[in-house]
Specification:
Blueprint: H1 10-22, H2 24-30, E1 33-34, E2 37-38, H3 45-59, H4 74-85, H5 97-109, H6 122-135, H7 144-161, H8 178-193, H9 200-212, H10 230-242, H11 249-260, H12 272-285, H13 289-306, H14 319-330
Antiparallel strand pairs: 1-2
Helix pairs in contact: 1-13, 2-13, 3-14, 4-5, 4-6, 4-14, 6-7, 6-8, 7-8, 8-10, 10-11, 10-12, 12-13, 12-14
Length: 342
């Protein structure tokens, strides 16, 4: 799982789990959402988020990349751009406009002019396409639209030629896995939200692939049933919820697995920030809104405790990825981007 193995100290894992188990009464009283309307930000979210953004802005290089871990991977640059966009500042004239422009320039410069392939792996391509989709119509750059359309066309062609109707590391891969496929699927949904045509068949085939990887325990395996874990199951549940299939047995079993195994830190500790990124979206889109409020308050507290004085979060794949993923797990509180709307 290239560039996706962040580390989380045991202390913070234990604190997170305890908070997740006991935050329910406070969450119910808080009433974060009322009839689908945003009420107010939970305490400390704005300060925590802004501090993280300032770290990313201060450490970005002139070419749009970051210098640590996987900070030069175009997919990580894409996640950083999305984290900046998700705060809701004006992307053309606001405080992070220069940083967003640098990141977009780097993504576009890494796009193949012929077929739109971005970044040398479908992980990178998926997250970079997500960034372009969320930027399209917001960022004043005429180059985004044509490259976004090519990037989506490559996703669709790659899927159609894949025997599993999913994705792996290369556009021409004949095998597939649930993690790469998650990045590609979310990019397709974001592109559809931006107005790019995405055939319903592509969505349906993706759902079939995740169903084929569901284990007896309801969790999702890597390339087939078996070896379920929390991050992959969160991806699968998000895929189903984005496709508006939360009434299916497959989805309900995934959600049940996530709830039943939330105290098993060993299932997610190797990919903690990656797990936070997907799990926050999954719980946000869950029909059971109390699950989101419990998760959100617990996630806010653990990220506030683990945020460094410079605004970053640390991970074994670098502070850039860990910080971007952490911020995006908080970004649901803003609900500014189309991909983060219910």
């Amino acid at each position: 799982m290239a560039f996706l193995k962040p580390f989380m100290p045991r202390f913070f894992l234990a604190a997170f789990l305890a908070l997740a188990l006991f935050a329910a009464p406070a969450a119910r009283a808080f009433g974060l959402f009322s009839s689908g309307d945003f009420c107010k930000l939970p305490d400390g979210v704005e300060a925590t988020y802004s501090k993280g953004l300032r770290f990313l802005a201060a450490t970005q290089r002139a070419d749009g990349t970051w210098g640590d871990g996987y900070g030069r991977e175009v997919g990580v640059v894409g996640l950083c751009v999305v984290a900046m966009l998700a705060h809701g500042d004006d992307p053309n004239y606001g405080p992070y406009a220069v940083n967003i422009k640098r990141g977009i320039n780097y993504i576009l410069s890494n796009a193949n002019k012929g077929n739109g392939y971005i970044g040398g792996s479908m992980y990178n391509h998926g997250f970079a396409t997500l960034a372009l989709a969320e930027s399209y119509g917001m960022v004043d750059d005429d180059r985004i639209g044509p490259i976004l359309e090519k990037a989506v066309a490559l996703l669709l062609t790659s899927q159609a030629k894949n025997p599993h109707n999913a994705w792996r590391y290369s556009p021409t891969s004949t095998d597939a896995d649930t993690t790469v496929s998650g990045a590609c699927f979310v990019a397709l949904i974001a592109a559809a939200n931006a107005g790019v045509e995405v055939p319903s068949k592509a969505i349906k085939e993706s759902l079939k692939y995740y169903a084929s990887c569901q284990s007896d325990d309801g969790g999702i395996g890597y390339v087939s049933p078996g070896g379920s874990n929390l991050p992959r199951t969160a991806i699968g549940a998000l895929v189903y919820s984005l496709a508006r299939k939360t009434n299916t047995t497959v989805y309900k079993r995934m959600l049940s697995y996530l709830q039943s195994n939330s105290s098993d830190a060993s299932r997610s500790s190797g990919y903690f920030h990656y797990y936070l990124y997907y799990a926050s979206q999954t719980y946000f889109r869950s029909p059971k809104t109390n699950l989101w409020t419990r998760w959100n308050l617990a996630n806010i507290k653990i990220l506030q405790m683990s945020q460094q004085s410079d605004g970053a979060w640390r991970g074994s794949y670098g502070t850039t990825f860990a910080t971007a993923a952490s911020l995006l797990s908080l970004a649901l509180n803003y609900r500014y981007l189309p991909i983060y709307e219910r």
